[in-house]
């Protein structure tokens, strides 16, 4: 059973390290030791392509929800899934709070409705 869970969660754990490196590289202009992340800037393009591909394949199957027009990345789709209700919303809030927002330089990666 644990192998099944690992397979199901694999899209997130493949994208997550790329997100952590990429988001810091995009905000490396803050100066100081953050400039070291400039080295990883080329990886952000690879991460973006992988994010779009996985959003329309594995992550669509995982959430059982097809991306709407304009939701090219998983982060864009999470904005809608936060208010979908049920299992999808619970998963979206978990990913937002415990995986994406805490690592974002501004502390907010997925914007919520007021």
Structure explained in plain terms:
By secondary structure, this protein is mainly alpha-helical. It contains 5 helices and no strands. Helix 1 packs across helix 2. The chain has helices spanning 2-26, 41-55, 58-63, 74-81, 86-100. The protein has one domain (2-103). The chain is 61% helix and 0% strand.
Q: DSSP strand (E) fraction?
A: under 5%
Radius of gyration: 15 Å
Beta strand count: 0
* Portion of residues within helices: 55-70%
Shape by Cα distribution: globular
Terminal-residue CA separation: 40 Å
User: With helices defined by DSSP (H or I, 4 residues minimum), what is the helix count?
Assistant: 5
Tell me the series of helices and strands, N- to C-terminal: HHHHH
Question: How would a crystallographer describe the biggest sheet?
Answer: none
* Number of domain units: 1
Quick check: average pLDDT?
Answer: 78
Regions with little confidence, pLDDT below 50 for 5+ residues: none
